[in-house]
Structures
1.
Amino acid sequence: MLTQLVTDQIPFEDGRLGRHVVHDPRSWDFQEELPRRAEPLRDVQHRRYDPRPEPRQEIGCCTGVGECMLGNAKNNRVKGVILGMDRAVEVYSLATTLDPFQGTYPPTDTGSSGLAAAKAAVQLGIAEKYVWYFTLEDVLRALQNHPISFGGLWTYDMFRATRDNPLVRPTGAVAGGHQWVLSGYRAKDELIVGECWWGSGFGRNGRFYISTPDFQRLYENRGDAHYTYRKFV
């Protein structure tokens, strides 16, 4: 269990990255309570109502994008409201003022943390609360019910996802940090479905896959996962 604040500003050159580490022990107070008895994991794919065509992220606002993707998810969205890149940048901009790092956006594309983005979403009124997951088991169990925003390292080899081969492997040199959304699970293959707003040229229209063991490697190396509630139904 984390006992002290951990921060790490991860360098990035690709504008699609930008996630940094801020792990606060107080986040344990916001751990989601999950049922003690876990049912077998099943295939699931969570639907979202994102803008069309899908936005293309070009600055380091991936943490803000993650908040908007969660906010567009079925059973979590506000009917008639679709959060787009403008709101993602707004969340990101506020998050840069909440993080313990130098610089804010605008004018500086500093990147931000998942924690700061979750706080920003609440302050901006597009979320009511956020909850955290501290074990891989809890992440997979929660993913059965709703998508999850995940922040972790991103390697150069992970950029290679294509329509024909959408599987990413966290091999090669670290390119930076990235926040993306776990949107589904394929139980038989033990594959997590990931998505980000990178346009149709990445993976299958922004959707890719990662094996559970590979995801665990990322999760255990300064990764974090949370869900932001927009609407109680």
2.
Amino acid sequence: MSEFAAEFIGTMILVLLGDGVVANVCLKGTKGHDGGWIVITIGWGLAVFTAVVVSGEFSGAHINPAVTVGLAAAGTFALAKVPLFITAQLLGGAAGAFLVWLFYRDHYDLSTDQGTILGTFSTGPEIRKPTSNVLSEVIGTFVLIMAVLYASAPKVTAGTEEIKVGMGALGAIPVAFVVMAIGLSLGGTTGYAINPARDLGPRLVHQLVPIKHKGASDWGYSWVPVIGPILGALLAALVYSLGPVA
């Protein structure tokens, strides 16, 4: 599998299972209706686990533009590959959201709350204050990227051996727990996007697909889950570059 395909498929699986658990909990008439925040955070953690298992061997399982940018800024990932990876991630995120809509389309027709419907595609704040919302995304992503950078830091380089760096370098189970921890502890303000591809592509899909009671896609907020994670990734790269790597 090529790196592009791995990032596309990995991000597609991430959003399919991640947005899928939100749809299962929030849409009317589902088996998981009203399952609550714990179910959502566990579902997202397992979505990351599955995506890493599938794509980690081939691309390092970045599955997140913030991870790609953070690793490149820290000097542990080739800058020339950044556009390729981000393109694959954005397309994969959109594909995953489309599959969620296709899978739950009958339940979308039953659901009437426009905010709930949008929430199965993209994130949104509980209290809309742009400065606070961006800060939430910066801090959450900072934690994620620091975990990736330190846990994946190569201890030994043997000759010309290529070491793929990304969330897959943590191992699927540890990275799933990191994402679950962020969701449980830091997800209550904005829904912890911590990943532009998990929000931007799905928001576009929400704009395009036919849903009976669909409202606006809230493009006025869409910059927050893009800028916040990128800033958090760059901050983590800066801290990493200034500190010792054990």
